[in-house]
Amino acid sequence: MVDTYKAFPEQETSSPTFLEGVKDCIPTLLGYISIGIAMGIVGLSGGLSIFQVFLLSTFVYAGSSQFIICAMIAASSPISAIILTTFIVNLRHLLLSSVLAPKFTSYSLWKNLGIGSLVTDESFGVAIIKLAKKHPISDRWMNGLNLTAYIVWIISCTVGAYLGGWIPDPQILGFDFALTSMFIALLILQLQTITPSKLKHYLFLMLMMVICMLVLSSFVASSLAVILSTIIVASIGVMTDK
């Protein structure tokens, strides 16, 4: 992770404001709103109340985990299994936060905890793109980015739960596939902008991911296999990237 941090060139000394963070978050809000509404609808159909969906989106704040929790609740899974699965699925946030951490070493522990607890895949992406463009980031900017996404997500999930009363079976309309479809769309958009050599590299990593998943799934649970495969293939990607 230290290498990733060092890869960014020296940045400007100006400190971006909270409102700049809010502004930079706006392009990602369409994804938060659409996926949040879908999650609320799925949550209500899974047996949760509107208030429970609100609490879930407030205290868990992880789209993939929330979809999984709703599915496990509907399947009457034990609480211990739900907690363990949620923990494993969200382990990637340790990696995301560790990449950003060197930029916030001058801030207090409480400020770092506040920033890290609200980092998502989307906010991490916005921050990394800003760093790659040699633009500075600050705690105020990160809070503007994170809090805007957080509030919009909670509202979207709650609205989705309210709308779910008129949709008895969301699977018919494919709402349970919303999160997966979003990541597929992001992957396609990324593949359209890369060079042929990079495309070959990415296809190689995808193949390695499939192989790792097939091998590891024979020895450990599929949820753990996903995490281990991601770490292994990400490491291979860093070492083979030219």
What does this structure look like?
The protein is mostly helical. It has two domains: 2-186, no CATH class; 194-242, no CATH class. It is built from 14 helices and no strands. It has helices at 2-6, 18-25, 29-45, 50-59, 63-74, 79-89, 92-100, 109-116, 121-132, 139-163, 170-173, 178-191, 196-216, 222-240. The longest helix has 25 residues, at 139-163. It is globular.
Q: Per the principal axes of the C-alpha atoms, what is the gross shape? A: globular
Unreliable stretches covering 5 or more consecutive residues: 1-12
Work out the strand percent: under 5%
- Give the integer mean of the pLDDT values: 81
What level of helicity do the residues show? over 70%
Biggest sheet details? none
Return the string of H and E elements. HHHHHHHHHHHHHH
The overall number of domains is 2
Summing up helix and strand content along with how strands pair, one would put the structural category as: mainly alpha
- Output the radius of gyration: 19 Å
Provide a count of the helices. Answer: 14
DSSP strand tally: 0
Distance between the termini: 17 Å
